Amino acid sequence: MKLLFLHGLGQTADSWHPVMKSLSGYDCQALELFDQGRLPENLQIMQDKVKQAIEQSDEEVCLVGLSLGAMLALSMTELVSPKLKGIVSCAGQYQFVQNRAYKRQIFLFRLLPKGFFRKHGLDKLSMLTFYKSLSGFDVSQTLKETNLPIKLICGQNDPVNLKVAEELKNLIPNSSLDIIADSGHVINKDQPEELARQIQTFVESMI
Questions:
Q1: Which segments constitute the AB hydrolase-1 domain (predicted)?
Q2: Which of 6, 25, 54, 184 is most buried, by the most CB atoms less than 10 A from its CB?
Q3: Which tens digits make up the pLDDT trace of 42-94?
């Protein structure tokens, strides 16, 4: 089974290397989701990139996403593909329609200077354009109906996403939740070996 990794905001495909190193026995690929720090105009462009990677794979695929990448992975439950066998969602959101944290984030992005974004390899205008396009994002119904096994993972020190992870656990029929100790939001950086162990356990349960 191929493991397809989707990075978060402020990260690149290389951010998954510490995790992939601990999964050396697996076929791993980390997608680069942004073009030189510029986010696409909307989520559909990234969904198409992930869909293409799934369909071009010679093996069955398990998606592994962090934050924005996890949100992207969860949105792929709308894709009807026999190759997609499971999802690992690390600190992923599933709806922004009634999401106060999302609205606060948009407000904060407007206030921050362009230099802040450049320091993190990002472009402010493309960031705002992309995040505004997510105002209607909601995959609640699809997640309620999916038969895909989904592993939910969250850092112990990530209170906002812990709440969302619990909501997702109650929403998704075939899901389980693991909380990683001594980790914040960026689990692939804080606890890469433990995250790799959780991924391996989940994948082996599907084989």
A1: 3-197
A2: 6
A3: 999 999 999 999 999 999 999 999 999 999 999 999 887 899 999 999 999 99
